[in-house]
Write a structure and sequence with these properties.
The chain is mainly α. The chain has 21 helices and no strands.
Length: 334
């Protein structure tokens, strides 16, 4: 019952609380048959699935199980393996998962990457509520028989890993209420550990603050820093001798305080990337139903073209491109 209550909180954030009566008209049976039988028409299938809500995808998944006795996400993965490792099978499989299932899979992929994808993990711990993260951890353990926090703690000790461990600890805090007084005190400590100090930033002070404060409290602290000292904390970090810790911290602060700008910049920087770790699919899938419309608006204002147009022009893999273009376009109009 508790997990079910947490899942309802997740859906509230995703703005996907439509009832079955308000579902847009789609044929679940036809879509399920297409998933099962028509891999040769994957472009059409991808475009159809890209326009579905989480409620519709759940209905498709349940209908598919009743028709074929198999989870369609498993079928899509098997189809991917049988079709020269076509990545579209994995993307569609991810898209059909519940948000907490999807995040658990992406967290495992980030940890299994040849170079740990710290950006993906940091985005997860920054962008999800503690109640959502609990569901993710439960799913991670159920699916992979491992503990997510332990896997993160066992990673090589570098600046990104240190901040990630601190963020993981912050989600265990029992202090859910925010405090302006605490924010002022923490802002002053951050200043004394950075701009107000000779030499490099005092990492221990920063990590201590991150580990003891909720995500919302950290946001208030960063805003308070600007109010007291007249400039963004992220910009203040540039005044210190550059290093990996400062770079990692700037990334975290921007993702924390301005995720729309952060993700827009990331997409523009990597949209033409052809490696497996290209963040484009991850960002579009994970932010759909949250703020992908705002990301698209910022992207157009900043870079002078629609996000779906940029994807169309830049992505060379045609199967992925059709799905990602449809995903960006569908979410830009909701």
């Amino acid at each position: 019952m508790y997990a079910r209550g947490l899942q309802s909180l997740w859906e509230a954030q995703a703005l996907d609380m439509a009832t079955s009566a308000s579902l847009r008209s789609i044929s679940c049976e036809k879509t399920c048959k297409d998933i099962h039988d028509k891999w040769g028409r994957v472009d059409q299938l991808a475009r159809v699935l890209a326009c579905t809500t989480n409620m519709e995808r759940r209905q498709i998944r349940e209908t598919y199980k009743s028709m074929y006795g198999l989870d369609p996400t498993d079928h899509l993965q098997q189809t991917r393996d049988a079709n020269a490792n076509s990545e579209i099978g994995s993307l569609l499989s991810l898209w059909l998962l519940e948000p907490h299932e999807r995040d658990a899979v992406m967290a495992r992929e980030a940890l299994n990457s040849s170079h740990t994808n710290y950006n993906a993990l940091l985005e997860l711990y920054i962008g999800r509520k503690s109640s959502q993260l609990l569901l993710i951890k439960q799913e991670y353990h159920a699916k992979f028989k491992r503990q997510l926090d332990q896997d993160i703690s066992s990673e090589p000790d570098d600046s990104y890993q240190k901040i990630l461990v601190a963020l993981a600890t912050s989600h265990k805090s029992h202090y859910t209420e925010v405090s302006q007084h605490v924010a002022k005190c923490d802002a002053k400590r951050l200043h004394e550990a950075g701009e107000g100090r000779m030499g490099t930033i005092d990492e221990n002070v920063v990590l201590e603050i991150i580990s003891k404060r909720s995500i919302q409290q950290l946001k208030i602290t960063i805003n308070t820093y600007k109010h007291i000292y007249g400039r963004d904390y992220r910009k203040s970090l540039k005044s210190k001798p550059g290093g990996e810790f400062e770079d990692a911290l700037r990334m975290v602060v921007e993702c924390l305080c301005n995720p729309v700008k952060y993700f827009s910049k990331m997409l523009n920087k990597n949209i033409s990337e052809t490696t497996k770790d290209n963040p484009l699919p991850r960002v579009l899938i994970s932010r759909a139903g949250i703020d992908i419309a705002e990301i698209g608006s910022y992207f157009k204002a900043k870079y002078g073209r629609k996000l779906e147009e940029a994807i169309e022009e830049s992505v060379t893999n045609t199967d992925q491109r059709d799905f990602l273009v449809a995903l960006a376009a569908a979410n830009s109009t909701r």
